[in-house]
Amino acid sequence: MSKEIVDIRKEEIINACEKLYENNNFKDITIKSIGEKTTFSRTSIYNYFQTKEEIFLALFKREYEIWTNDLNQMYEENSTMTKEIFADKLAKTVAKRKNLLKLLSMNMYDMEENSRMEELIEFKKAYGNSIKMVKKCIDKFFKEISDKEKDEFVYLFFPFMYGIYPYAEVTNKQKEAMEKGGVLFKYLSIYEITYKGILRLLN
Q: Over the range 16-36, which residues count as b (16 or more CB within 10 Å of their CB) and which as e?
């Protein structure tokens, strides 16, 4: 089988997984349910991915690659930026990547633990490229910031991303429990949380 056909088949499997993940939890999605959304048999999936976690990891990798492309576009299209404009543009790129945030906050351990090392390495390369691209943007747009401050931004921003999705995407059940538990809650969108967080880190 040619590499082109393999890549097309892999993409179809990843797309099926992505579609299911829109309305289902990670634990409820199986190789069988993914296979039912593809044009070939469930058993054929094992020719491309050994576990459902590897399929999710491939989706996660693609999310980082798309985000890195958006970051690169932001880098190329702007010569200067204020902190506010940078926070706005970076927050908008993050807000477009809801699946990235969902996978990051909810299912990262399962995916990494149950994937082959070679698949995990490819994922880490995509993740690493996004870190490099954010650092590249910081270097370009904020020359007045010290190298130490730039490094601190990058290594605080990425852990900060873990908490965005569960705070912005609150279920009705969670809202009811917080209300009855006397927990104060103010809804903020993915964009709002990210924008405010970026500004705090830059200042």
A: bbbebbeeeebeebebeebbe
**Which of 4, 1, 44, 35 has the alpha carbon at shortest distance from 17?**
35
Side-chain-side CA neighbours of 79 within 13 Å: the count stands at 0
Sequence-distant (≥ 6) Cβ neighbours of residue 45 within 8 angstroms: 13, 31, 34, 35, 38, 55
- Residue range 146-166, pLDDT digits in tens: 999 999 999 999 999 999 999
The interaxial angle of helices 147-161 and 117-141, nearest 10 deg, is 130
Place of tokens 């490819």: 122
In this predicted model, what pLDDT tens digit does every residue of 10-56 receive, in sequence order? Answer: 999 999 999 999 999 899 999 999 999 998 877 889 999 999 999 99
User: In terms of CATH architecture, what is 52-202?
Assistant: Orthogonal Bundle (1.10)
Tokens of 88: 């706005």
1-48, what's its fold? Answer: Arc Repressor Mutant, subunit A (1.10.10)
Distance CA 1, CA 76 (A): 38
